[in-house]
Design a protein that fits this description.
The protein is α/β, with parallel strands linked by helices. It is built from ten helices and 16 strands. The strands form four sheets. It has an eight-stranded mixed beta sheet. The protein has a four-stranded antiparallel beta sheet with strand order 10-12-8-13, with helices on one face. The chain has a two-stranded antiparallel ribbon with strand order 7-14. The longest helix has 21 residues. The structure holds zinc ion (2 copies).
């Protein structure tokens, strides 16, 4: 007989999660500085009698061991805020100038604590175990890899992993699954072109880097326009160009920076080599020298299509009140990607759009608000994933 969690316990569970969320929201902390937030997580887990340990400086791993045999579900929540001054008008707005929970990570942490409460209370009939992954520094420099390296997914070994992210594109009461690649790899590049300076009236005595840089910007567009399958996504954006001294001096050096965005790993791997070949070819034509440096960011998140499909149908069957949607991928980044490389994973988008609550702004905006009516749905979704994995409903 299907049980609707919300009918039984969620009003108090959601109310408590909202209270914790507002507390975290008032005192936001940036990546690897989440001491107060991690302290709240530890305090709550201890009060629930859930075993837990610190990892990766401010990360916390909790383990709920079900009484019945089964698989191990990982549930991940990020805890860090952004360097931004809040202008949401919420009564519990940030009390720290220049720091704000503008991506909803406060809500993610509080909802995972709510799910932990439900799962721990029903431990006697829980199949398998649940690993709670409270992660620091998602906005940078990245807390997922240090947690994984500290063994967060190894003991017990996680069989499938999920996370929630609030999403203003979907109305409250809706959750979204995007099977396959659901966002982008965002990598940075830096170019330096070196020539030889001279008098602006005598270009033949110098090696001018300005026309060379202009040719490089145009030539780089060939990566997207001529070298990539038009059905695949790639972006090559040169965002800055700096060079030169005065109108009548030939610039001996130009520096440029930009971003590569890609979704397909083979396209991503080829980007640096393609850019280098094009840049060196242009530099040789203009008799300059060029240097390219690429700094790799998070890989794209791969949502395991089998997990998405079985979890979505499990939810529809067990929790018919939840609306399930398939929003398009985004070109944003998310270091949950690393967890989803170690175990089949799914990034679940939790709808928070609600005009009446002013929950209409995108993440990273100073006006960002989270419709707290979404908490009950978020907690329900996390609990369902844990029960579905353990019982084999999600990963048989
Ligand atoms: Zn963010
Ligand atoms: Zn985020």
């Amino acid at each position: 007989m299907a049980e609707t969690i919300l009918d039984v316990i969620a009003p108090e569970i959601a109310a408590r999660a909202i209270e914790i969320r507002r507390d975290i929201h008032r005192f936001p902390e940036l990546g690897f500085e989440e001491e107060r937030t991690a302290g709240i997580v530890e305090r709550e887990l201890a009060a629930l009698d859930i075993e837990h340990r610190r990892v990766a400086k401010t990360g916390v791993v909790g383990i709920i061991r079900g009484a019945l045999p089964g698989k191990v579900a990982g549930l991940r929540a990020d805890m860090d805020a952004l360097p931004l001054t809040e202008r949401s008008g919420e009564p519990f707005a940030s009390e720290v100038a220049g720091k704000m929970h503008a991506c909803g990570h406060d809500a993610h942490t509080a909802m995972l604590l709510g799910a932990a409460r439900v799962l721990q209370a029903s431990r006697h009939r829980l199949e398998g175990s649940v690993v709670l992954l409270f992660q620091p520094a998602e906005e940078g420099p990245g807390g997922a890899l240090p947690m994984i390296e500290a063994g967060a997914m190894d003991d017990p070994k996680v069989d499938a992993v999920a996370m929630l992210h609030v999403d203003y594109r979907l109305p409250t009461g809706t959750i979204g699954f995007t099977p396959g690649i659901c966002n982008a790899a965002a990598d940075e590049f830096y170019i330096t072109v070196e020539g030889r300076g001279g008098h602006g009236s005598a270009p033949h005595t110098a090696l001018d880097t300005i026309p060379c840089a202009a040719a490089m910007v145009l030539a780089l567009q060939n990566i997207a326009a001529r070298e990539t399958d038009p059905f695949k996504s790639v972006v090559v954006t040169v965002g800055t160009i700096e060079g030169g001294y005065r109108n009548n001096i030939i610039a001996d050096r130009v520096k440029m920076s930009g971003t590569f965005r890609s979704q397909d790993p083979t396209i991503r791997e080829a980007l640096e080599g393609r850019a280098r070949r094009i840049l060196e070819g242009v530099a040789s034509a203009y008799q300059t020298r060029v240097e390219l440096k690429v700094i790799y960011g998070y890989p794209p998140v791969y949502n395991d299509p089998a997990v998405c499909e079985t979890f979505a149908s499990y939810l529809q069957q067990e929790h018919p009140r939840l609306e399930v949607a398939s929003p398009p991928p985004t070109m944003g980044g998310e270091d949950f990607a690393y967890f989803a490389q170690r175990a089949p994973g799914v990034l679940v988008r939790l709808g928070i759009f609600n005009e009446a609550r002013g929950s209409v702004h995108p993440g990273h905006s100073p006006q960002f608000r989270v419709d707290e009516d979404a908490f009950a749905f978020g907690i329900e979704t996390l609990v369902a994933f844990a029960r579905g994995v353990g019982g084999g409903g999600v990963r048989g």
